[in-house]
Write a structure and sequence with these properties.
alpha/beta, 6 helices, globular
Amino acid sequence: MALFSRNILVIGAGELGYEVLRFLTQHPNCHGATLSVLLRPASVSSENPSKQKELDRLRQMGVHIVLGDIVENAQNALVQDPENSLLKYQIVFGQGRGVSWDLSTTWNHQRGIRATTAEDWAKDNLAPNANGTSESESLVV
């Protein structure tokens, strides 16, 4: 049985993002989860053969591509946007320019929404706890 069947969004498909996606697509407890990656529109529309090869690899892994650029969007625009593509995800992985910050100062932390690192999330959710169950609350990473 799958550990969860929810939407997971990984921000970017660089070195970390690609490895997180690869790990999640292969992990037995992630079957049934919808995996997506947030990519800049310019990356997806690029005619660069290596970019197209990366996109093909993601699609072959069953990863959905979501267009967006959180670095370019102001926080207020994200809060006010009712069509915010990030709202439908319970788990978001991200790292790099514009997405790395002190967890205690985040919008989520200030509102009591749990935030953690990708490593801690994986430990809590992909390996059984002592009683054989796993944590299943929503969070942003």
